[in-house]
């Protein structure tokens, strides 16, 4: 008993020492990503890897907190909203400079956000540190919308570079890290901003390295040429857990992996065909095969993530039923099926760890109901995105990771008419769905939940994409890395982290 008591005291004492471990300045962190960045301009950003890098270079007016999905001031210190949710006033942080030394002020906000397409507001400068957003329609979620990375504020050199279409992109922000170098397909290097308004970050340099081949990533983690990987594959969990000096964490991700169908092209302009395809896909088998069952994902049934407020838990779930799929295809005028194409991502995604293999399984499921799909591979992730956004495809495997905790952003990005040509790859729109989105922006939380649940029922009856999986976030890092943990909204803030040799 005395031995057990001494062990307990030691464990408590050690825990106190660990809790009091002081952050250290200096060092380099090497971070693995699934793909290279696709742009340096916030208003063009849609993929996780690009946002992961530039969350540390650029800043919006407000942002999510370090370790939670709550909001906090960033380049704005505080803000007010009118009773009708149409006028938002932001008071800007004073004495902030961009990385090139130029001052941040109200003009900076207007110059940056004027480049964002479909900004739902007119901007009005009151003075150098006050700006008003005047919305045409009420939007109770506008503060959350303005916190998304593609509403970040950039410096004059970046705006000039964008307008002049310069050959070597320039990324100048106000964030804790400066953009030092980009070697396409090889690495992105950030360096500490010595004059950051929030205090100098701990780590001197961060290097982001894309890995297309999973075995190479695992080798790099083991030999410590990579310090941290925020999205490892489910198949790596067991290996990571038994590797000395590697830590592991998993939390639910606010994401959906799905099979999209181009609603502007026949036969996918027919909802019966889309619903038939939903019955043809064995989602449970995909989850068990590629996510090791419930260890890394759940079967999806809605267009909203299961962890997001407004999720409809009682939504009708379409179970795997090839016979029903064939019957619906016959009703839709395709008794013998049809030929189509299937576009998978060329690299692993958090919601789709082995997309090329998964595409082969989806192809098989489709063939079983008479649909002959030809898989079309992309040379790069940016090419894949370009094809998807332009609508030059029939079917595509894709997914979406929430930029915010609010359903408005998720549903608007994926299914609104305004997002066709970018994130709405299905190119589907519906007047009633648009009305629901608009209505919810001016409702209380409880009323919004009801509206979003009605929107999910409409989605389920139309099925522009087939929800496949709700994935978990899976991360690993070595013992050099301190202060890191996964963010519930998939943020990656370097200023939280330090290196201890």
UniProtKB/TrEMBL annotation:
Transmembrane segments: none annotated. SUPFAM superfamilies: Periplasmic binding protein-like II. Residues 1-19 form the signal peptide. One of its GO terms (biological process) is peptide transport. The keyword Transferase does not apply. Residues 71-419 form the Solute-binding protein family domain. GO terms for cellular component: ATP-binding cassette (ABC) transporter complex; periplasmic space. It comes from the Bacteria. One of its GO terms (molecular function) is peptide transmembrane transporter activity. Keywords: Signal, Transport. InterPro entries: Peptide/Ni-bd, SBP_5, SBP_5_dom. Belongs to the bacterial solute-binding protein 5 family. This is Solute-binding protein family 5 domain-containing protein. It comes from Candidatus Fischerbacteria bacterium RBG_13_37_8. The lineage of its organism: Bacteria, Candidatus Fischeribacteriota.
């Amino acid at each position: 008993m005395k031995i057990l008591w001494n062990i307990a005291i030691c464990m408590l004492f050690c825990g106190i020492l660990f809790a009091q471990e002081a952050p250290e300045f200096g060092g380099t962190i090497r971070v693995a990503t699934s793909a290279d960045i696709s742009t340096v301009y916030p208003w063009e950003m849609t993929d996780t890897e690009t946002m992961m890098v530039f969350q540390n270079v650029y800043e919006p007016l407000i942002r999510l907190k370090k370790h939670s999905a709550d909001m906090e001031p960033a380049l704005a210190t505080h803000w007010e909203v009118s009773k009708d949710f149409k006028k938002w006033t932001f008071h800007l942080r004073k004495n902030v400079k961009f990385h090139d030394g130029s001052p941040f002020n109200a003009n900076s906000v207007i110059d940056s956000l004027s480049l964002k397409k479909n900004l739902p507001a007119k901007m009005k400068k009151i003075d150098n540190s006050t700006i008003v957003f005047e919305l045409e329609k009420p939007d109770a979620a506008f503060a959350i919308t303005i916190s998304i990375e593609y509403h970040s504020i950039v410096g004059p050199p970046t705006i000039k570079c964008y307008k002049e279409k310069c050959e070597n992109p320039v990324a100048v922000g106000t964030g804790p890290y400066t953009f030092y170098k980009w070697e396409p397909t090889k690495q992105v290097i950030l360096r500490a901003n010595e004059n950051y308004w929030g205090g100098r970050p701990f780590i001197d340099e961060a290097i982001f390295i894309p890995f297309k081949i999973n075995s190479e990533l695992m080798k790099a983690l083991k030999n410590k040429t990579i310090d941290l990987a925020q999205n490892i594959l489910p198949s790596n969990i067991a290996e990571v857990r038994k590797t000395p000096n590697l830590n592991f964490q998993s939390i639910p991700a606010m994401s959906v992996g799905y099979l999209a169908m181009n609603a502007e092209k026949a036969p996918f302009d027919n909802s019966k065909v889309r619903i038939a395809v939903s019955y043809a896909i064995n989602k449970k088998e995909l989850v068990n095969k590629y996510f090791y069952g419930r260890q890394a994902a759940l079967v999806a049934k809605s267009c909203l993530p299961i962890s997001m407020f407004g999720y409809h838990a009682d939504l009708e779930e379409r179970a795997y039923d090839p016979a029903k799929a064939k019957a619906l295809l016959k009703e839709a005028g395709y008794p013998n099926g049809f030929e189509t194409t299937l576009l998978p991502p060329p690299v692993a995604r958090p919601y789709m760890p082995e997309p090329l293999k998964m595409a082969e399984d989806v192809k098989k499921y489709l063939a079983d109901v008479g649909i002959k799909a030809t898989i079309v591979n992309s040379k790069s992730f940016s090419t894949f995105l370009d094809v998807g956004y332009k609508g030059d495809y029939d079917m595509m495997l894709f997914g979406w990771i929430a930029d915010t905790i609010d359903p408005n952003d998720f549903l608007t990005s994926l299914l609104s008419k305004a997002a066709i040509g970018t994130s709405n790859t299905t190119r589907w729109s519906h007047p009633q769905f648009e009305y629901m989105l608009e209505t919810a922006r001016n409702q209380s939380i409880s009323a919004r939940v009801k509206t979003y649940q009605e929107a999910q029922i409409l989605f389920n009856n139309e099925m522009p994409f087939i929800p496949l999986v709700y994935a978990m976030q899976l991360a690993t890092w070595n013992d050099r890395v301190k202060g890191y943990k996964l963010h519930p909204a998939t943020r990656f803030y370097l200023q939280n982290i330090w290196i201890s040799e």
